[in-house]
Amino acid sequence: MRGIDDSVSAITLNSVHLEGGPSTLSGNVVLAELNEVICSAEKIKIRHGNGYEHYEFIDAPVRFTASTSEEESGPLKLRWVARTKIAE
Length: 88
What we know:
The protein is mainly β and 88 residues long. Helices cover 0% and strands 49% of the residues. It starts with 14 loop residues before the first strand and ends with a strand. The relative contact order is 0.25.
């Protein structure tokens, strides 16, 4: 991976939930397992085939206190917004 903003680099180690876009990138995905991911504070670009799939953050991780008083978080949610092709 390259182009990772320090403020969002922690999400690259965890799964995120992707909505929309190609079916092979839908649902919970671990970004560290993908070929090329470019992150910023506003969006993520994922190399897919001959282009990039663009996703924007929907919300922050959901945090709650369980009965054991441990803090848990859900995956970040991102929504597909566009596809761009790689220039040849």
